Amino acid sequence: MTFTIQDVLIAADDAYTTVDVQVVDGKIAAIAPDLEVIGTAFNGTNKLLLPGFFNAHTHSSEMWQRGIMSAFPLELWLAELYDFAPLDTEKVYLSALGTAVETLLSGGTSVVDHLVLIPELELETIATAVRAYKEVGIRAFIAPLIQDESMTAGIPSGESAKTHEPYFRSTSATLAIIEEATRQFHRPDEGVYILVAPTGIQLCTDALFEGCIELSDRYNLCRHSHLLETKAQEKLAQEKYGCTAVEHLKRIGYLSDRTTLAHCVWLNDADIDIMAETQSTVVHNPLSNLRLGSGIAPILKYRQAGVNVTFGCDGASSNDSQDLLEAIKIGSILHNVTDSDYQHWITPQQAVEMASLGGAKGLNLADKLGSLTVGKQADLVLYDLTHLSLLPRTDPIGLLVLGRPHNVVDSAWVNGKQIVANGKVTTINVDELRQELFNRSQWETKRISESVAQIEAHYRTIMGL
Ligand SMILES: [Zn+2]
């Protein structure tokens, strides 16, 4: 955990400079030219050093259904997803490994896993994901996905009042699971964090949100949730609360400077002001928003209002990969078509800062992570600038963000521990992982979802289709 990277390129204001970087006991100890070598020496020549990015919203087990999900909007897509998610803990383990590896090899050193829990095996699911992430060594923010209303409650009812099946697990039992998970697994010093993470207003009661706030305050946990991903959720919030989802979440106290909210597509200007005032963080998931037709989040408005924004891949069934560089690229240039004032467009340098410091801020760790700053933890990524996709030599960050870089991560460290070397994850056997993913799956095509058949007609009516 003590080493020196020599002659490495770093970004300094609008220029680049070549320096040595000393890391002592997992922390950045010095950044300057011609430092003495302490610990292991790494040759940084023709390489770019950046702080690790945050994959600030994903669902690891969706990896099992990537590439096969129908072209559906979220509400129908979720019904199909859950019909074909016969998960066991071994699959949870393998897809967490896969998510970690793909995140690392696209520049991420932290992952926020909004983890789908296997019913009746909730703590086992969490334990399995913790084990996988610890083996890989990526910094893991595990946000067990909880709800206390059944799936049909997530679709607006329209004119007729609808009744829904009660959810199979009580609100208090759900909160007890999160509290127990916190006691067993929340170990910030070891790079494992538990978050409170109700899935969203569409499937959660106030009692669940309030219980999560209480746990968050008691155990100093960050808060996570989906927020207004679809037009249907915007309608549902009006039905459920008579106001916007953001106004309601503010009223019950869920929004804060350690609350990250995935998607945030359907917020109005007053909502955006509330996001700024409460210092909440938006996690931008541009690929899943495109894939599910959810809409384009008003990211440039957030930035102008002073709202912190970072990036996520979202689960691999709605993406259908975990390539953080791809999410950063699309998530930064997508807004050039909706906002004509180019002076507000996101530059590659700003995109990198959003992906690193933006993620750290959202998780209340800006004093420890997210930038190349002496005293911060060494969560670092070294990019090979001699790779074909980063040539010829122009602006390294410009090409990293706007190009189509692949296999360009040479090394990565988390808390000063090297977990990627020479372009390969060194902590687990990735060939074995590939073999396991292959063996436990098969080539298939069209599937028929019974749940979709049950709700599709109602969904189409409600959405005027
Ligand atoms: Zn999600």
TrEMBL record:
Molecular function terms, GO-annotated: hydrolase activity, acting on carbon-nitrogen (but not peptide) bonds
Keywords: Hydrolase
Domain spans labelled Amidohydrolase-related: 49-418
Matching Pfam families: Amidohydro_1
Source domain of life: Bacteria
PANTHER family: AMIDOHYDROLASE-RELATED DOMAIN-CONTAINING PROTEIN (PTHR43794:SF11), AMINOHYDROLASE SSNA-RELATED (PTHR43794)
Name of the featured protein: Amidohydrolase
Organism: Amazonocrinis nigriterrae CENA67
